[in-house]
Amino acid sequence: MGATAGPARAELGELMQSPEFDRLFKALGDPTRRAILGRLSLGPSSVSALAAPLDITVTAVGQHLQVLEESRLVRTAKAGRVRTCRIDQAGFSALERWVGWHRRAWETHLDRLGDVLDED
Amino acid sequence: MGATAGPARAELGELMQSPEFDRLFKALGDPTRRAILGRLSLGPSSVSALAAPLDITVTAVGQHLQVLEESRLVRTAKAGRVRTCRIDQAGFSALERWVGWHRRAWETHLDRLGDVLDED
DNA sequence: CTTTTTGTCAAGCGATGACTTCAGTATCGT
DNA sequence: ACGATACTGAAGTCATCGCTTGACAAAAAG
After folding, report:
1. Any domain includes B20
2. What value does the mean pLDDT take over residues A91-97?
3. For residue B11, what pLDDT band results from cuts at 50, 70 and 90?
4. Is A99–B96 a contact, with Cβ atoms under 8 angstroms apart?
5. Is B88 among the domain residues?
6. Would B58 be classed as within a structural domain?
7. Quick one: which of B6, B13, B39, B46 has the fewest CB in 10 Å?
8. Are B23 and B69 in contact (CB under 8 A)?
9. A80: domain range?
């Protein structure tokens, strides 16, 4: 990638703080929602099927799903009376972009202090 | 795949729900803490230097730093009266492992439904 | 048509969390 | 020694969040 398009380095940091990432990380902050993501990673599921192993109400799962959908981690579609939920790639891609930017950032500005003898 | 090392597929999902990831994602859930990470990605900083552009108290930053340190996203060291903070690789590696597992999971169990005509 | 299943809406409760103030400790500069 | 700087700890406030209950709507099953 050339230095042609895209904002400057400093502005990229600001980009990372957009409301998009705000929703994304807030969604990932709850363990129940991550459990839902873990379940959906194995394949699509209905709302009540998601609620069963979680020991919470179907209503609660519905609220979680709304958050997950707004952050593009889950996509749902209602057919008849059953809503089928599946993983949405968009959220995960955004997450990977976030981690990638930070890793690249502090690997470039590597403190030349020599005291960082990290593992792996 | 031999049954030699590593837990079974189903158990991996459980691993992802360990207290380690609990703390990690809870730490990432707050926008102020992510702003701190963005700042530290550009190089080490003191506590008060972190507080300046954030419009919050030094005490608040100290509390955030404790959370970030417990989740292995930041490492700090006190020299004299100033505490120097820098990025800790461990937390980011854990995050990449989490995303990687999920991506691999739903790319394997790809719904053979044909209705997933995703972008990129 | 009646019943059961599956999900949605509205309101409310309890707990957690982010931030503040105030007081205290230790280090640096003069 | 004195004052300024850099941080730490305890306690309290206020908003947000996860979850529940209860009432409701609509599709499938009998």
Report:
1. yes
2. 97
3. low
4. yes
5. yes
6. yes
7. B6
8. no
9. 12-107
List the single residue in A25, A34, A102 with the smallest CB-CB distance to B41. Answer: A102
| CB atoms near residue B40 (< 10 Å) | 25
pLDDT value of residue A120: 40
Per the structure, the count of domains in chain B is 1
Q: Across all residues in chain B, what is the average pLDDT?
A: 86
Tell me whether residues B106 and A42 touch, CB distance under 8 A. yes
The phi, psi pair for A65, rounded to 5°, reads -65, -35
DSSP β-bridge partners for residue B46 = B84
* Set of chain A residues whose Cβ sits within 8 Å of the Cβ of B40: 106
> DSSP states of A5-54 as a string?
SS--HHHHHHHTTSHHHHHHHHHHT-HHHHHHHHHHTTS-EEHHHHHGGG
Evaluate whether residue A28 is within a structural domain. Answer: yes
Question: Tell me, what CATH number does A56's domain have?
Answer: 1.10.10.10
Give the CA-to-C1' distance from B106 to D21 in angstroms: 35
Share of chain B above pLDDT 90, in %: 72
Do A28 and B31 count as a contact with CB atoms less than 8 A apart? no
A46-86 pLDDT, tens per residue? 999 999 999 999 999 999 999 999 999 999 999 999 999 99
Q: What is the pLDDT of residue A8?
A: 54
Nearest to B95 by CA among A53, A100, A86: A100
Tokens of B36: 């701190």
Structure tokens at B83: 């505490």
C chain positions with any atom within 7 Å of a protein CB: 5-10, 17-22, 26-28
